[in-house]
Amino acid sequence: MTTKSQSNNGTDTEQPSRREFVQMSSSAALAAAMATSVVSSGVFAAQDNTIKIGLIGCGGRGGGAAINALGADSHTKLVALGDMFKDKLEAKLKDLKAAAPKQVDVPEENRFAGWDAYKGVINAADVVLLATPPHFRPMHVRAVIEAGKHCFCEKPVGVDAPGVRSVMETTKLATEKNVNLVSGLCYRYDTPKIETMKRIHGGDIGKIRVLEANYLTSGLWSAPRQPAWSDMEWQLRNWLYFTWLSGDHIVEQHIHSLDKAMWAMQDKPPMQVVASGGRIQRTGPEFGNVYDHFNTIYEWEDGTRCFSACRQWIQTAADVSDWVFGTDGVADVSRHIITGKNPWRAKKSLANMYDLEHQALFKAIRKGQVINNGNYMCQSTLMAIMGRMAAYTGKVVKWDEALNSNESLTPSKYEFGPLPVAPVAIPGSRPDPTKMEKVGRAG
C-alpha cells in the first residue's frame, strides 16, 4: 500500500511501498543491454544539425562529462557553462577550449554563476550535463526535464529520500515529454560488464547466494579555507565532506559498487540493511561531518546478502572489486570472469564506458529515440542512502522505511553567510545527527 507525505512543494504525494517500487522498476528494460527504455522522441536537434550542450557544475567530473559529450558526436557544441563560482567556471572553460577548441564556444552572456546559474544554462542548451554537488540534482534535473531538454545526470541523484522521490516523479515526467534521461552510473554502459551481467542473469553461476562489493580507495582533494569565505562558501567548495551536499561517500562514490549489486539482483531492492562506520583518519574539522569508512550488509527477501565495504584512507591498500557467488559458480564482475560449471572470460574491450554512455545519448537523440535510466538511478541512490542511515543510527533500516523517510538534509535557506555544521553522527546518540547544529568553524 502507499502512504502520503509532503513533497518539496508542499502537496501530498503518494509514497510507494517496496513492492510497488519493484513493480515500477523496468525489468523489461533490463532485458535490453543497458537497462534502458526506448520510445519515439518529439525533441530533435537544431536545423543546422548541431546539438547545443550546456554544463552545470564545472568541477573535475563536469569537465570530463563535457569532453565525453563533445567526443560522442562531432556535430555538437558546448555553448553554456554554469557554476556557483565564476573562478571555477572560467578555469574550466579555459581547459575545455584547449581540449576541444572547435567545439567550445561559450560567449560571456552564456557564462552563468550563482544560485540560479542552472536556469541560464538550461535555456541556452538542447542537452544539459548535470555535475553539481549531489544535493542540487533533484532541483536541477527537474528544471531540465520541465524545460523539455535532454539530460545527462551524474550519480547519485540526491542525498536524502525526499530528493530521490522527487527524481522518481521527474523520471515519469521525462517519459511523458519523450526526452532522454541518462545516468552517470557508467558501469551499466561498459560492454564487458553488460555481457557478464547477461550471463549472471542467464543462470551461468546458478542461484545467487552472496554478493561482495568493495570500494577501498585513497583520500580525495580538499580546498583549504580562505579568510574571505563564509561558512556556506567553504562548505560548497569542499562539498565532499558535508553530508547535506554529498550524501557522504557511501552515496557519492560507493554508489557505483552498490549499483552493480542492484544490477546483479535484476534491480530488485534489498529488504533491509545493517551497517557500521565512522572516522579514523579524517577526524579534523576540515573534513566536515562525513565518515571515512562504512561496512554494510544488505539482505534480500530470499536470504541473499551483499557484504559491502568502502573507505577513503591514505597510504592503505586499495580494492575496488565486485563479486557474485552462486550455487554453480562465481562471477568476478570487475575483471569479467566466471569460474565454476560455466567458465568464461570476456574479450578485452577498448571502448571507454564514459564515452559509451554519451554515445548512447546522442545516438538516441539523432534517431528520435529516448533512453530513460531513471528507475535504476533512483533505486541505487536509495540503496546507498539507506546504508548511510543504518550506519549513522546503528539501526536496521528497511527499504520502505528509507523510501518513505521525511528526513531532509536541505538547509533552511540558500545564501552565503553563516551555516552551522551538523555534528558527526554517533550511532545511538541524541540529538538526531542529521540536524544542523553549530559546532564551531573550521580554520
Structure, described:
With 443 residues, the chain is an alpha/beta fold. It folds into two domains: 32-188 and 354-372, 3-Layer(aba) Sandwich (Rossmann fold), CATH 3.40.50.720; 208-326 and 382-403, 2-Layer Sandwich (Dihydrodipicolinate Reductase, domain 2), CATH 3.30.360. The chain has 15 helices and 19 strands. The strands form four sheets. The protein has a nine-stranded mixed β-sheet. Strands 6-5-4-7-8-9 form a six-stranded parallel β-sheet, sandwiched between helices. Strand 5, helix 4 (86-99) and strand 6 form a beta-alpha-beta unit. The longest helix has 20 residues, at 374-393. It is globular and about 60 Å long. The protein starts with a strand and ends in a 40-residue tail after the last helix. Residues 1-15, 21-44 and 436-443 have low confidence and may be disordered.
Tally the structural domains: 2
Largest sheet: 9 strands, mixed
In the CATH hierarchy, what is the class of the largest domain? Alpha Beta
CATH third-tier fold name of the largest domain: Rossmann fold
Strand composition percent:
15-25%
Low-confidence stretches: 1-15, 21-44, 436-443
Alpha carbon gap, first and last residue? 49 Å
Mean pLDDT: 90
Structure summary:
The protein is α/β, with parallel strands linked by helices. Helix content is 34%, strand content 21%.
